[in-house]
């Protein structure tokens, strides 16, 4: 497992409330849409990152992490495993404090690079499942 309970708790409660959600669009059928709603209910600012750069859940969207004109605390990644590693590298370059790969997204090399850069990281878990457990 990539991300013990202490790391999950730290990312969700201590590292900041601005979450860039990579892969978030207005497609209500996609998991990212519902997860973003849950994050907002728990007080997180959700910033959509998607090639369409569309606004979602009342927040302006951006085509890439680099285009976001403010600091991001956590980068939540909803892209397939082949694309996830480069997104983690972009999160490091952006100055994020943590990276979260969603359920089914695993890239061990990206995990190693991200942790070596000093960021916290969780893979193959969902914050919408984890955050209510913190109760």
**Unreliable stretches:** none
Helix content: 25-40%
Write down the Rg.
13 Å
What fraction of the residues are assigned to beta strands by DSSP?
15-25%
Structural class, from secondary structure content?
alpha/beta
Strand order of the largest sheet: 2-1-3-4-5
* Total number of helices: 5
Number of strands: 5
Q: How is the biggest beta sheet arranged? A: 5 strands, parallel
CA-CA gap between termini: 22 Å
What is the overall pLDDT average?
Answer: 95
Outline type:
globular
Key attributes of the depicted protein:
135 residues; alpha/beta; 5 helices; 37% helix; 16% strand; globular
Outline the structure in words.
This protein has helices at 5-13, 31-41, 81-94, 108-116, 127-133; strands at 18-22, 45-49, 74-77, 98-101, 120-122. It has 135 residues and is α/β, with parallel strands linked by helices. The protein has a five-stranded parallel sheet with strand order 2-1-3-4-5, with helices on both faces. Helix 4 links the parallel strand 4 (98-101) and strand 5 (120-122). Helix 3 runs parallel beside helix 4 (108-116). The radius of gyration is 13 Å and the shape is globular. 40% of the residues are buried.
Concise account of the structure shown:
By secondary structure, the chain is of the alpha/beta class. It is built from five helices and five strands; from the N terminus they run αβαββαβαβα. Strands 2-1-3-4-5 form a five-stranded parallel beta sheet, sandwiched between helices.
């Amino acid at each position: 497992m990539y991300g013990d309970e202490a790391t999950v708790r730290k990312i969700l409660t201590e590292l900041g409330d601005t979450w860039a959600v990579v892969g978030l669009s207005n497609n209500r059928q996609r998991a990212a849409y519902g997860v973003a709603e849950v994050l907002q209910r728990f007080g997180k600012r959700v910033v959509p990152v998607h090639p369409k750069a569309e606004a979602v859940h009342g927040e302006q969207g951006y085509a890439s992490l680099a285009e976001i004109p403010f600091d991001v605390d956590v980068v939540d990644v909803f892209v397939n495993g082949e694309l996830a590693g480069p997104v983690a590298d972009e999160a490091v370059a952006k100055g994020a404090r943590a990276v979260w790969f969603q359920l089914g997204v695993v890239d061990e090399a990206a995990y190693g690079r991200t942790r070596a850069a000093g960021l916290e990281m969780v893979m193959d878990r969902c914050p919408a499942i984890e955050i209510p457990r913190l109760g």
